[in-house]
TrEMBL record, chains A, B:
It catalyses: a fatty acyl-[ACP] + phosphate = an acyl phosphate + holo-[ACP]. It is found in: Cytoplasm. GO terms for molecular function: phosphate:acyl-[acyl carrier protein] acyltransferase activity. Its main location: cytoplasm. Catalyzes the reversible formation of acyl-phosphate (acyl-PO(4)) from acyl-[acyl-carrier-protein] (acyl-ACP). This enzyme utilizes acyl-ACP as fatty acyl donor, but not acyl-CoA. PANTHER family: FATTY ACID/PHOSPHOLIPID SYNTHESIS PROTEIN PLSX, PHOSPHATE ACYLTRANSFERASE. It holds the Pfam family FA_synthesis. This is Phosphate acyltransferase. InterPro entries: FA_synthesis (IPR003664), Phospholipid_synth_PlsX-like (IPR012281). Pathway: Lipid metabolism; phospholipid metabolism. Homodimer. Probably interacts with PlsY. NCBIfam families: plsX. Its EC number is 2.3.1.274. It comes from Thalassotalea psychrophila.
Amino acid sequence: MVNLTVALDVMGGDLGPLITIPSAKMAIEHVPSLKLILCGDESVIRTHLKEHNFLDHPRISIVHASEQIAMDEKPSVALRTKKDSSMRRALDLVHTGDADACVSAGNTGALLAIAHYVLKMLPGVERPALVSHLPITDSASHAFMLDLGANVFCDSDTLFQFAMMGSVMAEEVDSIESPRVALLNMGEEVIKGSDHIKQTAALLSKTPEINYVGFIEGNDIFTGKADVIVCDGFVGNIALKTCEGVGKLVMGKVMKIINESKFTRLLGFLLNPTLKKIVKRLNPDQYNGASLIGLRGIVVKSHGNATSSAFFNAILEAVKEVERQVPEKIKNKLEVSLLKRS
Amino acid sequence: MVNLTVALDVMGGDLGPLITIPSAKMAIEHVPSLKLILCGDESVIRTHLKEHNFLDHPRISIVHASEQIAMDEKPSVALRTKKDSSMRRALDLVHTGDADACVSAGNTGALLAIAHYVLKMLPGVERPALVSHLPITDSASHAFMLDLGANVFCDSDTLFQFAMMGSVMAEEVDSIESPRVALLNMGEEVIKGSDHIKQTAALLSKTPEINYVGFIEGNDIFTGKADVIVCDGFVGNIALKTCEGVGKLVMGKVMKIINESKFTRLLGFLLNPTLKKIVKRLNPDQYNGASLIGLRGIVVKSHGNATSSAFFNAILEAVKEVERQVPEKIKNKLEVSLLKRS
């Protein structure tokens, strides 16, 4: 097994090292080939490692960073002024090749801006995209959806690149052969979507490298009709957050009915943990992180209020992407298609 | 009690009279002041009425229409060529004042196009919007959301008008005093939305007639933070359909757990109908119809595969809007605000 190294932004997220250090310990114990570089305030990191009896582990090293980026800090300010932040240090390590990937639960906008600046885009990719998996009804499988909020508006070229990148993710990370790629669109019967979606559909239809299966509506995100669902970041973000809201709504209503009688209350004990798990899965960055793809390096974003197990899952996601060499594969696939189009 | 008349597009929807006639009977029995004009093929209507022992009811009349619009017919073609369709006849009756409102479960795009053409817009409104209620967590209350799919893209003036119209709906139909109006936007921490959303926010902030409460994210649609949620039709349609998808996903997972043992299966019988009801409420036009507002007349759209009770609910929604004189109230509110802005 090849050794691989992941840099962690220890100070990112609402609770910083309180969450990230236990996750680091779990990851080291779980993946024998994994090395971690912990970026952040060294003395704080050492205190937390000591608390977990994990100081001076041979596969853990520390890179000191004197600053940290607040969750509500303006991305452009963070990019310009916080050159010694834990997030910047972690991304720098990916850039220099000292780490194979970076995981952060910090400010999403800042992570996007700094990752874009430090790592740069892959050739042929204009914008990075946030991608994650969503669960599928009656199946252990899932669908990749992108962009989940990195870009407000995307033109047809950008959406085309997202389709390409999502297809590589599904193929490489999930080993799906010829993944079915769909464009998220509104009800066909009303109006068949905006011009740039139609243009993207036209581009995808004539690209044999992509198994384009057409438009998909919101109610089919979870039905397994597509392995990759492509949309702009505004729509993706709202769809995703709406999922979370509906999950909580349905869960609340179910628990209310269950609590109405003694008999059914018993069922609540059985259902409650599973329902909570479903709702959590509907929030992918709380579940296993969302990946920032299109960059010359692997960056996984965990939720600001991720638990230790969610941040641990995000580290595992990064490990998987390193093993499958996702950016390299995206680069190759894009090169082939760009060559054909030119 | 004042008499009121609703025109029904009997032939619209997947099952036409099989659904609409029983709903008409229910509505007539439920609302003593209601008169219905059934638009469609007279002999078919008479056959169905006879089957339900409801022929020659004094509060039911028939307007014959020789054509009907297919669910997949192109709206522009339906508008141009189907001048004797059941949908067109029903809308014509609203236009001439013979009916106070129209209810249809037919082709949404055609209904939009023909309603727009026949009824025309209220002064100061550029585009009609589809609006409906969504349930709120832990409450019997709901939030109005618009546009749900009538318009792909909306500029800031259109979104502003939608906010105004939604506010009137909440005030008049739901008797909410000074309804809280919010704009649906993506996660603030990533990027704060598109330019036209920011422009709409600026417009709303300086309009004292609207109780504008700021941006709302997808996960807060159901938490009761706002009484009116405004977005463009593309986003609204996708958010709404995603809700439906999540509802089914969660329900599927819950039923799977329930079916795992004999004991819990018993409880499943108890939960199943309530769960189905929740999922149904997430699809407003299957629940009580979506209203097409901004027009000089009341039009309620029921789902293509609505059940009799859903189509009945849509008729009741139309009755409510007639009683509260919704278009008149929208007109008045817009006049006041336009006067102030000019």
